[in-house]
Amino acid sequence: MMLDETEGQILGESDAPAGSPSDIEVERGGFSLWQRLRSPRTLISFGLAFALVVFAFRGLNIDVAQTWEYMRAANPWLMLMGLAVFYTTFPLRALRWRMLLRNADVPLDERPGSWAALPALMEYLYLSWFANCIVPAKLGDAYRAYLLKHNGRVSFSSAFGTIFAERLLDMIGLFAMLLISGWVTFGAHMPEGTQIVFGFGAALVVAILAGLAGMRWLSPLIRRFMPARLHDFYGRFEHAALSSFSPAILPRLVLLTGAVWLLEGARLYFVILALGHEGLSLDLPAVIFVALSSSLLTALPITPAGLGVVEGTITVVLTFFGVDKHLGIAVTLLDRLINFWSIVIGGFVVYLISKRK
């Protein structure tokens, strides 16, 4: 796939400030699933993930047979309910992204007031999640911007700016609900292990807010230190990121973000119900805290979708609530069956048949 002439002239051979080198690589050369899967970086990340899983099982002294017995006893209908709840988040995320795109004046191939673009945006979202599950460094976000550019004939940098704004909404909403659920669950005395989760979440929020503030108040300084040929590219990214929000749509954006993260908590709630074990007597704030901790850790760029990190950490977090470690790892693995492996399998099918990839 070739860049249009204008975009190619702007990018040149340098990394644009709007994204990482991986992001620009996707914008310039497209996305090859087979090439990404066999790249050394991807193979190393999966090797690291496997090592982390083995380390967690050995470090926690997990009895695999006991864990498997718990998992086999799970109610399949309640697991399907958890799967349905999880997949309900995709149309909500697509609707929110559509609002950000329209507010940033990114043209969509639809008539004013119509919903024609929503199915395509859902497909781009799902394919980007699939990419995030099989390659490291959150490359799926750049892939999503590229899909919109290639199919919708819009600027990659503008599309990526709206995704940056979306990530800001997600991180602030997730971290706020994580703090509230943690406070309701633990009070002022947080378990020592939760400091890792809160620290990582706070660091991500600060980093994204710092980037937004830098674009808002330090734009002339940023442009001074970048090559002149990148100014237009960065300008479109900056405009889209800053103009995605407005007082008129902010309440709806907040409502949609809150609904997405509540549904993430409901997903785990159905997994716990599916196991139906008396040792899983967690109240709703505790379930939301664990689910959001899991979602937060998927942002780690070192392995695809936090693979390996999430499994070990969430099992430990569940022990804070008195959950047996074997039962805890069963909950974690069943939950990851929904929010990781279902996307790997379903995303691969969509990738094969999609005409928009």
What count of structural domains?
1
Q: How many individual helices?
A: 16
Which oligomeric state applies?
single chain
Indicate the radius of gyration in whole angstroms.
Answer: 21 Å
Q: How many strands? A: 0
Cα separation of the termini: 11 Å
The general outline is globular
Query: Kindly state the mean pLDDT as a whole number?
Result: 83
Spell the H/E element sequence. HHHHHHHHHHHHHHHH
Instruction: State which percent range the strand residues make up.
Output: under 5%
Structural class: mainly alpha
Percent of residues in helices: over 70%
Low-confidence stretches: 1-19
Main sheet characteristics? none
Characterization of this structure:
By secondary structure, the chain is mainly α. It has one domain. Helices cover 74% and strands 0% of the residues. The chain has 16 helices and no strands. The longest helix has 31 residues. The termini are close together.
Observed structural traits:
357 residues, mainly alpha, 16 helices, 0% strand, disordered N terminus
